[in-house]
């Protein structure tokens, strides 16, 4: 496992000439083509694009779960060649152990890695569950939790190993609209309290504008970067501040939608 590199001058993530081709029984799929961009430390970046444009492939490469066909990914200045302890992942579905309590699921990565969990670890797991709004639910099984609550457990589990980088692969897409918005605000609150470099995959324009400092827009397959947009909106993006941002949000939504529609045509 590659340790984090703490040199402050290094960007958190660099995609350098990244390309990916998959060879399957049905033929050759060109997933990514010459992807180049850099993510600064503690930046919240949303990667926005249509289904099949290689968004999740990018996450797998950052995590060291997939090697690119061409180019390379660097994390804190080091080429990614294997899974890293300083990278946490939240998947589209929380994939919790159904027989384990919420706190058991949170400590699972440590138990799997070292074979032991001490009193301080259990205390930190409970503190994380409180941080994500699940105080009092530590002993509940996944079947006793709503979809949004299960995803909160997944976020706490990803944060438990104290990663410098948090990868999120459409983590709220299976939730209803109100829960999805609530989870978005909760994620921003946690991120502001415990700064991380976040790469958040989504195909929702409104979600990207709600959450991100920056939006990287991908073309249909093969995925290429067609826009790299700094989001010029103050935080928080709800309540009174949200109303003040409404005009700009509408303008940015129209711009992003036009990019996606034009490229899909």
Automatic annotation (TrEMBL):
MF-aspect GO terms: ATP binding; ATP hydrolysis activity
InterPro entries: AAA+_ATPase (IPR003593), ABC_transporter-like_ATP-bd (IPR003439), ABC_transporter-like_CS (IPR017871), ABC_transporter_ATP-bind (IPR050166), P-loop_NTPase (IPR027417)
CDD domains from the UniProt entry: ABC_NrtD_SsuB_transporters
Keyword Endoplasmic reticulum recorded: no
SUPFAM superfamilies xrefs: P-loop containing nucleoside triphosphate hydrolases
The keyword Membrane is assigned to this record: no
Keywords of the record: ATP-binding, Nucleotide-binding, Transport
ABC transporter domain segment(s): 13-245
PROSITE patterns named in the record: ABC_TRANSPORTER_1, ABC_TRANSPORTER_2
Family: Belongs to the ABC transporter superfamily.
Official protein name in the record: ABC transporter ATP-binding protein
Organism expressing this protein natively: Jiella endophytica
């Amino acid at each position: 496992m590659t340790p984090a590199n703490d040199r402050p001058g290094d960007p958190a993530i660099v995609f350098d000439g990244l390309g990916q081709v998959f060879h399957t029984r049905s033929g050759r799929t060109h997933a990514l083509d010459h992807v180049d961009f850099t993510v600064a430390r503690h930046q919240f970046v949303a990667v926005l694009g249509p289904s099949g444009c290689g968004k999740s492939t990018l996450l797998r490469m950052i995590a060291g779960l997939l090697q690119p066909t061409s180019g390379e990914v660097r994390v804190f200045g080091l080429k990614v060649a294997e899974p890293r302890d300083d990278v946490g992942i939240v998947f589209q579905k929380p994939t919790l152990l159904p027989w384990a309590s919420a706190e058991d699921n949170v400590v699972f990565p440590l138990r799997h890695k070292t074979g032991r969990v001490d009193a301080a670890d259990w205390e930190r797991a409970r503190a994380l569950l409180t941080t994500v709004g699940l105080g009092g639910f530590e002993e509940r099984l996944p079947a006793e939790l709503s979809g949004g609550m299960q995803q909160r457990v997944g976020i706490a589990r990803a944060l438990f190993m104290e990663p410098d980088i948090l990868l999120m692969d459409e983590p709220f897409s299976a939730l209803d609209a109100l829960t999805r918005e609530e989870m978005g605000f909760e994620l921003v609150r946690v991120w502001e309290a415990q700064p991380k470099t976040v790469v958040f995959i989504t195909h929702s324009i409104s979600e990207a504008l709600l959450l991100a400092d920056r939006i990287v827009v991908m073309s249909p397959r093969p995925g290429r970067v067609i826009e790299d947009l700094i989001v010029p909106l103050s935080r928080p993006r709800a309540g009174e501040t949200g109303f003040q941002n409404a005009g700009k949000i509408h303008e940015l939504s129209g711009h992003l939608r036009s990019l996606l529609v034009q490229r899909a045509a």
